């Protein structure tokens, strides 16, 4: 694949690429107001709409260009999307080029790269679009040769006439194909016929990343750009009382120093920006600032108080019901033999390898933004409202992201960059330091869970979950009288069929600490509490933990996951002095089961010997990418469970960088085996669903080995 990630999908560039005079075949999906995609060609749209469709373009040379409306942040869409197109279009991967689209969710549909949604939301459209183009090219060739279409087939970017062996490459057919009617229902391949999909093809972006050729947000440069670093109030709601910029202005290269703000939904964070002609000068000038903050008017929290308060509300409040069936309260209150425990998960930072950054150019009546961005449509909407500029005049250009995990879906850092650009009257790149990235948030919320349950006849008779933690929706103005919509996230739906008396509730808890999405969102915390408690119920029933889940998860796909977990881990042949733990969670329409094996560490504590992960994500593209995402999720889950957390003292984060927020080292990573369930169900997510089951599988294994139940994260493996 040719790297071409600097092309902006403006109408001018689109016309250059497509040659709308009839030289190219261009097909796309248009997303009208009702959100139902319709197959279209340029001639069917207005000029403003032409540049806004996700297109497959075949030019006279035979080169295929895909205008991709989603971001690439390491999850593999830069490989998976062209792999889908190449399969049905019958072209070689080397002949496909990908460019990023500008932000416009009105025409593209949802553009947020989150919720592990890129493939599962678009693969059917991509398959149909590619097959449509292939059939039109075959029809064009058949007409040119004056032969039946059935005598022709496509392969490697060519149409071949079977009886004679004659060939034409796609570039020779593009113009003629562009004039033919598009088939409404092109014939799609059966999974058994795939030659590229479901094959572990090597990622085409890996060489470009390792040789430095790709342009990440931090690499992007535009003419006349200055650089800014901002000292922000470490307490989210604090204000600037006064500041002395004299020291900063003496640093060579520093141009200006002024007060700025950045919006997080309806809230504003204040700071002082240092603008310079280089990143280094801006950072050095920032060190010379003297700022006095006003931190009055809001409660200052510390970590012990947060979790003590959460436990108090769980003991004293029933909360807002999210799900209820049967009579769990009556059954639980009528028995003395119940399990009633509390689980806790900590706040976490995102710490993507590429810290937050953004370029903005406020041009008066328009704004243009460049950077590592997960949600261009959200940013367009927010910037439009904050600066009174029409949404279609806010142009958002996506670069490659060096990790996102939800952080780069926020609007605060682009808003701040636009604010600074407006003040200086020119383009600026705002750089966040690693310390900024780690300490300023937003964070994954720390949450406490009260779990109650009782057993009858070897099965769960009643189950009651209550969670107390910050609701991310409240930052977006969501209702505080309704349960968090993610209260059950991670909990497998088939449990509802087997547990007749069940309730899940959200107990309102708020702080002045900003929170938001973190990889797998609430499933990462819910999964730990809920699947750990299922294990406690299995112990209470005197049942094997995997068999206990098999009894309660009767849905066929869950049974196949359990069968595979049992087979690959050797579950039935577990040896003495080894601990085995299991957990199964659902996240973004995928189910993942994990088995973790632990043993005593001769140096103290326990060591993780191996992890087996079984994923049912339905229809999928590239098993190698799935394996990488599962491994990455498990490693991230290991860090969140055992090595790092965000804590607060007087509302200020106590961690700063990797030296006190340590990520797992390579020598701490256990062997991981990944297994994919083959089926033809609709596609689920891949990038996030393997994170939630790891922590409960690990702590359940430790219980199996030591008899010690771990209910609070993080914990030290060496001290167990």
From TrEMBL:
<dbReference type="InterPro" id="IPR012368">
    <property type="entry name" value="OxRdtase_Mopterin-bd_su_IorB"/>
</dbReference>
<dbReference type="InterPro" id="IPR046867">
    <property type="entry name" value="AldOxase/xan_DH_MoCoBD2"/>
</dbReference>
<dbReference type="Pfam" id="PF20256">
    <property type="entry name" value="MoCoBD_2"/>
</dbReference>
<dbReference type="Pfam" id="PF02738">
    <property type="entry name" value="MoCoBD_1"/>
</dbReference>
<dbReference type="InterPro" id="IPR037165">
    <property type="entry name" value="AldOxase/xan_DH_Mopterin-bd_sf"/>
</dbReference>
<protein>
    <submittedName>
        <fullName>Twin-arginine translocation signal domain-containing protein</fullName>
    </submittedName>
</protein>
<dbReference type="InterPro" id="IPR000674">
    <property type="entry name" value="Ald_Oxase/Xan_DH_a/b"/>
</dbReference>
<dbReference type="InterPro" id="IPR008274">
    <property type="entry name" value="AldOxase/xan_DH_MoCoBD1"/>
</dbReference>
<dbReference type="InterPro" id="IPR019546">
    <property type="entry name" value="TAT_signal_bac_arc"/>
</dbReference>
<dbReference type="InterPro" id="IPR006311">
    <property type="entry name" value="TAT_signal"/>
</dbReference>
<feature type="domain" description="Aldehyde oxidase/xanthine dehydrogenase a/b hammerhead">
    <location>
        <begin position="211"/>
        <end position="297"/>
    </location>
</feature>
<dbReference type="InterPro" id="IPR052516">
    <property type="entry name" value="N-heterocyclic_Hydroxylase"/>
</dbReference>
<dbReference type="GO" id="GO:0016491">
    <property type="term" value="F:oxidoreductase activity"/>
</dbReference>
């Amino acid at each position: 694949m040719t790297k071409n990630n600097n092309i902006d999908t403006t109408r001018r560039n689109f016309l250059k690429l497509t040659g709308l005079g009839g030289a190219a075949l261009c097909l796309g999906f248009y997303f009208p107001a009702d959100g139902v995609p319709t197959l279209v060609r340029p001639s069917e749209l207005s000029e403003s709409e032409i540049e806004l469709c996700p297109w497959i373009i075949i030019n006279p040379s035979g080169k295929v260009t895909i205008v991709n409306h989603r971001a690439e942040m390491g999850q593999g869409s830069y490989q998976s999307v062209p792999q889908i197109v190449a399969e049905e279009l019958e072209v070689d991967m080397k002949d496909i080029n990908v460019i990023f689209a500008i932000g416009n969710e009105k025409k593209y549909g949802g553009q947020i790269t989150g919720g592990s949604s890129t493939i599962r939301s678009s693969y059917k459209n991509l398959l149909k679009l590619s097959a449509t183009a292939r059939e039109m090219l075959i029809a064009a060739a058949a007409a040119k040769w004056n032969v039946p279409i059935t005598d022709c087939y496509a392969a490697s970017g060519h149409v071949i006439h079977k009886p004679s062996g004659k060939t034409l490459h796609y570039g020779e057919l593009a113009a003629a194909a562009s004039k033919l009617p598009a088939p409404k229902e092109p014939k799609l391949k059966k999974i058994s016929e795939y030659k590229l999909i479901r094959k572990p093809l090597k990622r085409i972006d890996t060489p470009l990343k390792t040789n430095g050729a790709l342009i990440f947000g931090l690499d992007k440069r535009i003419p006349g750009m200055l650089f800014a670093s901002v000292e922000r109030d470490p307490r989210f709601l604090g204000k600037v009382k006064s500041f002395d910029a004299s020291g900063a202005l003496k640093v060579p290269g520093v141009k200006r120093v002024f007060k700025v703000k950045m919006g997080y939904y309806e809230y504003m964070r204040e700071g002082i920006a240092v603008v310079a002609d280089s990143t280094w000068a801006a950072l050095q000038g920032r060190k010379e600032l003297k700022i006095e903050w006003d931190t009055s008017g809001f409660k200052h929290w510390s970590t012990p108080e947060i979790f003590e308060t959460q436990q108090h509300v769980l003991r004293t409040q029933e909360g807002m019901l999210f799900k209820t069936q049967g009579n769990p309260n009556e059954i639980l209150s009528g028995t003395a033999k119940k399990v009633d425990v509390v689980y806790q998960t900590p706040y976490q930072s995102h710490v993507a390898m590429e810290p937050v950054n953004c370029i903005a150019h406020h041009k008066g009546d328009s704004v243009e933004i460049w950077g590592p961005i997960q949600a261009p449509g959200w940013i367009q909407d927010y910037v439009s409202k904050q600066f009174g500029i029409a949404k279609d005049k806010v142009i958002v250009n996506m670069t490659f992201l060096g990790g996102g995990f939800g952080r780069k879906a926020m609007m605060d850092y682009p808003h701040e960059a636009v604010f600074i650009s407006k003040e200086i009257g020119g383009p600026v790149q705002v750089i966040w330091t690693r310390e900024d990235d780690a300490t300023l948030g937003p964070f994954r919320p720390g949450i406490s869970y009260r779990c109650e349950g009782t057993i009858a006849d070897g099965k769960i008779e009643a189950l009651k979950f209550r969670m107390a933690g910050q609701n991310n929706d409240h930052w977006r103005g969501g209702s505080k009288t309704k349960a968090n919509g993610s209260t059950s996230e991670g909990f497998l739906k088939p449990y509802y069929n087997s547990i007749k008396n069940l309730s899940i509730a959200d107990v309102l808890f708020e702080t002045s600490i900003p929170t938001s999405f973190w990889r797998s969102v609430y499933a990462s915390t819910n999964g730990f509490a809920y699947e750990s408690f299922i294990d406690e119920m299995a112990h209470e029933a005197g049942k094997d933990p995997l068999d206990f889940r098999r009894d309660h998860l009767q849905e066929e796909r869950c049974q196949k996951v359990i069968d595979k977990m049992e087979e690959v881990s050797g579950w039935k042949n577990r040896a003495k002095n080894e601990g085995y733990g299991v957990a199964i969670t659902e996240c973004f329409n995928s189910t993942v089961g994990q088995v973790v094996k632990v043993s005593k560490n001769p140096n103290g504590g326990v060591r993780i010997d191996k992890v087996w992960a079984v994923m049912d994500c339905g229809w999928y593209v590239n098993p190698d990418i799935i394996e990488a995402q599962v491994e990455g999720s498990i490693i991230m889950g290991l860090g969140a469970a055992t090595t790092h957390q965000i804590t607060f003292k007087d509302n200020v984060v106590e961690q700063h960088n990797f030296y006190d927020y340590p990520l797992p080292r390579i020598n701490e990573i256990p062997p991981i085996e990944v297994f994919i369930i083959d089926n033809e169900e609709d596609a689920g997510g891949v990038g996030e669903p393997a994170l939630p089951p790891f922590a409960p599988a690990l702590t359940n294994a430790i219980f199996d080995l030591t008899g010690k139940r771990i209910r609070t994260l993080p914990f030290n493996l060496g001290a167990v």
